[in-house]
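Practice problem: predict the structure.
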Amino acid sequence: MNGWQVALIRGINVGKAKRVAMADLRAMLADFGYGDVKTLLNSGNAVFTTQDAPGGAAARIEEGLATRLGVPARVVVLTGEEVAALVADNPLREIATDPSRYLVAVLADPADRRLLEPLTERDWGADALALGERVAYLWCAGGILESRLSEAVGRALRDGVTSRNWATMLKLHALVGGGAG
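Answer:
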């Protein structure tokens, strides 16, 4: 039986560089034999069903983006179950009141979590950081662009992380059958 997976493509369709039409992305995923392909927004979010392991799907999508669409980009793939778990776990639900200021940073390599552990010991003022198994939850009280925390996480992980705001994660969760969260 095929399971739901969520592909998070890092850094596409931000500004004028690295443009990918979502129709082209959907067509490429369908050509790979993935089923029930849908994209969300224009920022590199796709859901699909497949029997491929998430790591294999990520590598295949990265290669396809580079060779077929001419856009090199890192891809992180989560199972539908991983998305459901990260939504259910939500350790900052009490303080993260604005989904546009609440980020989920998904690590390409779960072992990189160790790079974020020192950040949990720092005082971030009104911002907050919590670590999950493969994600970091970032509450950016004054906004994402002004957040020293968001900047520190990006510096620690470089291109080994891709972030989505909470509203987007809830929409992806719903697309893979998880409801509104």
